[in-house]
Amino acid sequence: MFSTLIRLADEDDLPELPAIEASAGGAFAGVAGLEAVATDAGLDAAAFQRAFETGDVWVAQALEDPLFGELVAFAVTRRVGRDIHLAEMSTCREVQGRGIGRALLAAILESALEEGCTGATLTTFKDVPWNGPFYAAMGFRELAADELPAHLRDALAAEAARGILPMDRRCAMRLGLG
Ligand SMILES: CC(C)(COP(=O)(O)OP(=O)(O)OC[C@H]1O[C@@H](n2cnc3c(N)ncnc32)[C@H](O)[C@@H]1OP(=O)(O)O)[C@@H](O)C(=O)NCCC(=O)NCCS
After folding, report:
1. 4 lines ligand 1 (CB under 6 A)
2. The CATH number fitting domain 4-176, selected from 3.40.630.30, 1.10.10.60, 3.90.79.10, 3.30.1120.10
3. Phi, psi of 150 (to 5 degrees)
4. DSSP 16
5. pTM
6. Which atom of ligand 1 is nearest to the CA of 123?
7. Would you give per-residue pLDDT tens digits along the chain (178 residues)?
């Protein structure tokens, strides 16, 4: 377990996030058929600024050497009705698999529950261990096509339109809260 302080981002944190996202994507370099995801450009600075203004950006700040004080993970969420939507989550490659993502997601879900949210949603890869199976372990359930709310249909359609993701491996998931 790698110890971090999990908090809402300050505007000053935003310039650090594209590098974390780029590092995180390296996890896909070794996944057959998803190599292109590893080098995908991801969100730019303007997109992070919009996310900060229209939703919440969470960060995990290292409390251990040699990274003490540095941001090592982030997540972007936004409210959709009474659900919280997890638009993105990334942990720096060098500290992945050490419990930071789980702690970050747990903090987001706890906050959503406190704010009266009734659920949490996301889209992800079904078959990548740190995607679908991780979220399933956190209680998320894959939604069938006829269960998708409009924002998840839109999210999957936007992913398909980008053309680099194998959509047969994507899914939408939801966790009921409360
Ligand atoms: C998804 C991500 C943010 C999770 O963050 P993390 O700090 O690695 O998360 P954790 O260490 O808490 O691991 C969560 C679970 O993912 C799985 N996992 C993480 N790294 C893994 C690896 N290298 N191989 C296999 N499983 C792995 C494990 O099931 C783990 O749970 P466990 O330790 O209880 O078994 C991170 O892996 C990442 O940035 N990946 C690339 C970007 C991405 O996939 N983002 C999510 C888009 S939906």
Report:
1. no
2. 3.40.630.30
3. -55, -40
4. G
5. 0.96
6. 48
7. 999 999 999 999 999 999 999 999 999 999 999 999 998 878 888 999 999 999 899 999 999 999 999 999 999 999 999 999 999 999 999 999 999 999 999 999 999 999 999 999 999 999 999 999 999 999 999 999 999 999 999 999 999 998 889 999 999 999 999 8
